[in-house]
């Protein structure tokens, strides 16, 4: 039976992913959110339609990924917050590890003295990780990340493929 070969480099070149990622990395936070579109434009139901073919869907996705990039990033942040709020054990483990690291760092290398007990920083780090690693595995971070990737992908690609380009962009493409 022949194996199915998927040309990933051709797909990446077709969707222009490398240039998109390079432009995202080079932006500052203020520049990133400078092109945040209003919610009325992001949820404009008059511009929703089924693409006629794959070429049109691809054209819409290419345009909308750059046009609504800040809105899609906000959507990713909102889905991340939702996933942490619904997986409270994972949120607890993250707060435990960050708080523990912060508390141990505040000791500045000194030992922690609790009554007659004296704990070194290496003992505190070991205790923190002995508690947090099993809790972290039990909190199922992998399924949360996979849900987040899937939910973001379906939401962003669904919106980008069904949202028509604005009329102004149609006129700008027809250069003389």
The strands making up the biggest β-sheet line up spatially as 1-2
Largest sheet: 2 strands, antiparallel
Segments where pLDDT lies below 50 for 5+ residues? none
Shape descriptor reads elongated
The SSE order reads HHHHHHHEEHHH
The averaged pLDDT comes out at 85
Helix content: 55-70%
What is the percentage of strand-forming residues?
Answer: under 5%
Please give the number of β-strands.
Answer: 2
- The radius of gyration is 24 Å
CA(first)-CA(last) distance: 51 Å
Discrete helix count = 10
Based on secondary structure, the structural category is: mainly alpha
Structure description:
With 176 residues, the protein is mainly alpha-helical. It is 70% helix and 3% strand. It has a two-stranded antiparallel ribbon with strand order 1-2. The model has no long low-confidence stretch (mean pLDDT 85).
Task: Sum up the structure in keywords.
single chain; 176 residues; mainly alpha; two-stranded antiparallel ribbon; 2 strands; elongated
């Amino acid at each position: 039976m022949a194996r199915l070969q998927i040309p990933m480099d051709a797909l990446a070149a077709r969707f222009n992913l490398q240039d998109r990622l390079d432009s995202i990395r080079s932006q500052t936070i203020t520049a990133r959110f400078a092109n945040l579109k209003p919610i009325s434009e992001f949820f404009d139901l008059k511009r929703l339609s089924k693409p006629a073919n794959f070429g049109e869907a691809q054209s819409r996705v290419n345009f909308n990924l750059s046009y609504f990039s800040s809105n899609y990033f906000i959507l990713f942040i909102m889905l991340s917050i939702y996933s942490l709020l619904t997986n409270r054990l994972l949120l607890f483990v993250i707060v435990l590890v960050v708080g523990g690291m912060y508390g141990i760092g505040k000791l500045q290398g000194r030992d922690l003295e609790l009554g007659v007990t004296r704990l070194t920083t290496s003992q505190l780090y070991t205790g923190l990780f002995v508690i947090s690693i099993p809790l972290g595995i039990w909190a199922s971070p992998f399924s949360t990340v996979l849900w987040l990737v899937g939910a973001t992908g379906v939401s962003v690609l669904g919106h980008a493929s069904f949202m028509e380009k604005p009329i102004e962009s149609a006129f700008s493409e027809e250069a003389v």
